[in-house]
Write a structure and sequence with these properties.
The protein has 130 residues and is mainly α. The chain has two helices and no strands. It starts with a helix and ends in a 36-residue tail after the last helix.
């Protein structure tokens, strides 16, 4: 292999590495955005539940009818919780949890054959096809 071929091969390898790093950085940014959105939705759910408590108490205390507003808040909160679940699944896809040992529940590297903590032989998992 000539010097020029080795340089070309090394440049291609570096380019592929940069693409991989760039992709992972993009995943981290996307994951952070999704986590921020989940946080906002969770705060909104918290506010709705607080408002629901106040409405139920006011309805009890004043014998007034707040049923329509209570139902609106209940439905809105249900939709928010569904959106949180959906976003959490997207975050999980971007940041999959590392595998854990079935014997001691310690995390291990994806290609490990044995657990570094207890020595248990680990089943080799094949990554899911996309």
């Amino acid at each position: 292999m000539t010097f020029l071929e080795r340089v070309t091969k090394s440049a291609k390898s570096l380019g592929e590495g940069a693409k991989t790093i760039g992709g992972k950085a993009g995943d981290i940014v996307e994951s952070t955005k999704l986590k921020f959105e989940v946080s906002k939705l969770e705060k909104e759910v918290e506010n709705n539940i607080y408002a629901l408590g106040n409405l139920v108490f006011m309805q009890f205390k004043e014998a007034a009818d707040h049923e329509e507003e209570i139902n609106r808040l209940l439905n809105t909160t249900k939709v928010l919780e569904e959106e949180i679940v959906k976003l959490s699944k997207e975050i999980e896809k971007l940041n999959p949890k590392p595998p854990v040992c079935p014997k001691c529940n310690e995390e291990y590297p994806p290609n490990a054959k044995y657990c570094m903590n207890c020595g248990e032989k680990l089943a080799q998992e094949t990554p899911p096809a996309e």
